[in-house]
Here is the input.
Amino acid sequence: MSTPLYRVKADFFKTLGHPARIRVLELLSERDHSVAEILTDVGIEPTSLSQQLAVLRRSGLVSSRKHGSTVIYSLTSPEVAELLRVARTILTGMLSEQAELLQDLQEPLAATKDRRTARAGRRSRRTA
Here is the structure.
């Protein structure tokens, strides 16, 4: 019996569910990096980085190659970088809406009604 796609997707997102792994993928989205460069930028213990890189390799998100005694990591697909960009866009939208709600809470009631009316107009234009 094959694994349902939704379970495969859930496992994929679990792989992305660690801050160090996300940071490694962000760095590799810019360019290939050596382990030493990743270690400097991620700021975790070498053994922990090794474990996180192993998880990313097993999942097929990154690959490694040796250049002399240096191990270089790269993304296996440019879509990984695109996924991170999309996530950033989604989070930016969510946070800007939260910032608007916070501002609404801090303004007097009359100004809040005006802002809500304006925001509702912007939303209806976006969905149209």
